[in-house]
TrEMBL record:
The keyword Membrane does not apply. Signal peptide: none annotated. SMART domains: GAF (SM00065), HATPase_c (SM00387). Residues 454-543 form the Histidine kinase/HSP90-like ATPase domain. This is GAF domain-containing sensor histidine kinase. The keyword Kinase applies. Keywords: Kinase, Transferase, Two-component regulatory system. GO terms for molecular function: kinase activity. Residues 30-177, 198-344 form the GAF domain. It comes from Plantactinospora alkalitolerans. SUPFAM superfamilies: ATPase domain of HSP90 chaperone/DNA topoisomerase II/histidine kinase (SSF55874), GAF domain-like (SSF55781).
Amino acid sequence: MLDRVGEVVTSRERLRALLDAVVGLSADLDLRSTLERIVAAACRLAGARYAALGVVGPDRQLTEFITHGIDARTQARIGDLPHGRGVLGLLIADPRPVRMPDITRHPQSYGFPPNHPPMHGFLGAPIRIRDQVFGNLYLAEKQGASEFTDDDEEIVVALAAAAGVIIENARLFAVARRRERWLAAAAEITGVLLGEVRRTDALRLIARRAREVAEAEVALVLLYDDEAGQFTVEVAEVPDGGNTDNLVGTVLVAADTDFIEPVTRRRQAVVESLAKAAPWPVPVGGGPALISPLTAGDALHGVLVVAFPAGQGAESDVELTLLATFAGQAALALERARAQEEREMLAVLEDRERIARDLHDVVIQRLFAMGLQLQTVAPLAGRAEVRQRLDATVDDLDSTIRDIRRAIFELRTPMTAALRTEIRNMVAGCAEALGYRPTLEMSGPVDSAVPDPLRPDLLAVLGEALSNVVRHARASRVTVGVDVRDGELVIRVADDGVGADPAHARGGLVNLRERAERWGGDLDVGPGESAGTTIVWRVPLHDR
């Protein structure tokens, strides 16, 4: 009778301990700490010396192994954690409780690695979340006995059942927290898109928030050029504001990357390794990556890529859905930036047309009328010097009218005109003043290699150099060269005129030198090969 009473008391104490353990497991919904508390509770309830919880991955291998009872030094000496083979794999292949007096005598036992503590008594139970097996509880070395009992098995099975519910709640809580962070970041970006949109700044913010919320290692925005069949890295974001200059601007042949399928099929994708997804010229993260196309209506702009550290799994089902929101916002930013640029260009074109019309209809007519009046007055002048000055003034007015007409032509030239065409037109415009047409030589990718911010300076330098020849050189031959080679833009204007002294540089040459220095270049003015003057203006094109 006393033995029976003792058993009942012991059973009630263990049941109370189980309830206390379940209540304790629900105290915190952080998934990692929840798993650690489950292992510790199982070890305590079953009286085991060692315990572990193995998380089973999609490939039926252990993706995570949380231990209790083994200190960090011993674990480091053991080495890699198990993958789910041998006896541990029994519960993976057949998820039912397993209990044995000596694990080393089982036919599937692989033995223990070096430095592993000896273990004999074994008890295992699966942890289920609804109909799926999340992982397994493993216990070894019953304290005070040679093996685990039926009661130990029952209480561990009960703990595993309760743990499944708690783990599901923790996972749902983690997903809810993640969704909350995504939505908060999305709201922030929406606020930015409602104002004036600067394309690169907006894309950089989107990539940074996507990387931070997903707890990723790298976030990239790659723009797609369908005609050229290539991707260009527009934005790259890494932790702690790391340097990404060597990655931004990288051009990738689309057919050689894993990004082409999400673009052509307009659907999201997961790649096992970002490093293997494309022939990167510089090292990038080697972990898995999520890819989402940037689409807005029928327009396809590129892809948004979020990559995780090597060895870390990506929550693809959840993250892909939420990443699509950021991809849509990135596409919207590109659309808004393009519409904004078109509106600004339209406003500039309208303003240029108005200025050109006013110059043609008002200013030129007044100057022309003034010239006619002076020509009428000139014969009435008594002194020859006065007539000469009047004639010179009329010539200056004619020259001014020609300059204004040239300005009107430039104002009405389409803003998207090729740079080569603008250079040809500028050189051809000097033919009337010189009495002959200068020789023009262009080589290299002038249209594609010269960045837009540099083009106004290029044309201004060429115009100033030709103007100097017209006004001062008295040359019979002028040669103009515009070359792009070896990452450098070189403008060369040579004449066979009277020559110039570089030491007495006037305002025009000083202006040319300042324009060169602004771009990190230089100006060289010297004598020509046989006579005259040669002006060489050069600036680097790298990092522009």
